[in-house]
Amino acid sequence: MERLQKVIAHAGIASRRKAETYILDGRVKVNGQVVKELGTQVSAKDRVEVDNVPIYQEEPVYYLFYKPRGVISAVSDDKNRKVVVDYLSDVRERIYPVGRLDYDTSGLLLLTNDGNFSQKLTHPKHEVDKVYVAKVKGIAEKRNLLPLTRGMRIEGKRVAPARFEILSTDIKAQTSIVQLTIHEGRNHQVKNMLKAVGLPVQKLKREKYGELTLAGLRPGEYRELNKKEVSQLLDKAKK
C-alpha cells in the first residue's frame, strides 16, 4: 500500500506536492469514488483516475537537458511559448522538470517522472550543489562578493552562504564573469544575490548539478542519466 499522492507522482502525472492539490481539489478518484483525503492508501489493484483519466505506473526515467534561453521550465504554457518537454518529444513517459530555470537562463535541467526523486532534490534541506556562471555588469572584486559567502537576506528571506570565483573581468566593457555555487533553489536566487552586491546579471547559465555537467551536449539536446548518476544525486541529497 502507498499514499495516493505518491502513486500519482510516480505515474508521472505531477510532483507529489501538485498531486496533493489535485486530491484536495476533488480531481482524483479511487475505484470510481472521489477522494479528498491526503492520507489515503492505495494498492496496485486499485483503479486511480486523475481528471477521469486512469493512470498507470511508469518505470522511472531520468534525463539531463541543456535548456536554451527563451524556454519555459514547464510541461505547458498558457501563452503558447516553448516549454522544455517540447525538446523531449521522443520520450513517451510523462516527465516534468526537477525545479526550474528562469525563462532567460540556460543550462542544466533535470527531468523525470519520479516524484520521490524530484522531491528529494528540490527540498531546501537537501544540499546538492548547483554551479552557475553569470555575466554581470560591473567589475567584480572579492570585497564585493564576500557578503555572499556569509549568507544574506533576499526579499525578506535569508539565503544560505554561497561560494564564488571571479573568472574574468573586462575593464573596457565594464563587465565580469562570475561563477557562483549554491545549494538552494529559490526563484531568481542567483540574479537577486548578485544584484544585492551591485553586480546585476546580464546573462546566466547553470553549468553543473551535483557531479553532472553539460559535457557533450548543445542547447536543446538531452541524454538519459545512468543508474550511477541517479544514485550519486540521491546520496548527495541525503547528506
Overview of the structural elements:
The chain is of the alpha+beta class. The chain has three domains: 2-54, Roll (Structural Genomics Hypothetical 15.5 Kd Protein In mrcA-pckA Intergenic Region, Chain A); 62-125 and 215-238, Alpha-Beta Plaits (2-Layer Sandwich), CATH 3.30.70.580; 130-209, Alpha-Beta Plaits (2-Layer Sandwich), CATH 3.30.70.1560. 22% of the residues lie in helices and 31% in strands. The protein contains six helices and 17 strands. A hairpin with a 7-residue loop joins strand 8 and strand 9.
Any chance you could write out the topology, listing elements then pairs?
Elements: E1 2-3, H1 4-10, H2 16-24, E2 28-30, E3 33-34, E4 41-42, E5 48-50, E6 53-54, E7 62-67, E8 96-97, E9 105-112, H3 115-122, E10 130-137, H4 142-149, E11 152-154, E12 157-159, E13 163-170, E14 175-182, H5 189-196, E15 201-209, E16 212-213, E17 222-224, H6 227-238
Parallel strand pairs: 9-15
Antiparallel strand pairs: 1-4, 2-3, 2-5, 5-6, 7-9, 7-17, 8-9, 10-14, 10-15, 11-12, 13-14, 15-16
Helix pairs in contact: 1-2
